[in-house]
């Protein structure tokens, strides 16, 4: 069983499943329990004989973006296979144009 957990933004909180199949489970997590205007779509929701995936991410932030961290955690047969963390926005000298974006 190939389990893929997609954790995005901050620290663990409420987790929502995106898709599940016999070989793949994908979810995302926000740090709080408040509903977010967030959508992540992955096609197909399978790893078998699928060398190319298409993914789309849409997110409407509830506040200004000063801090943003992405954590990508992959598990294979229950064991941690990959852990990738990226600090996208830290509040100072950020590389990405989305950092510092004001709400609205």
TrEMBL record:
Protein origin, superkingdom: Eukaryota
GO biological process: detection of lipopolysaccharide; innate immune response; positive regulation of lipopolysaccharide-mediated signaling pathway; toll-like receptor 4 signaling pathway
The keyword Hydrolase is annotated on this UniProt entry: no
Keywords: Signal
InterPro entries: LY96
Gene Ontology terms, MF aspect: lipopolysaccharide binding; lipopolysaccharide immune receptor activity; Toll-like receptor 4 binding
Signal sequence residues: 1-15
Cellular component GO terms, alphabetical: lipopolysaccharide receptor complex
Protein name: LY96 protein
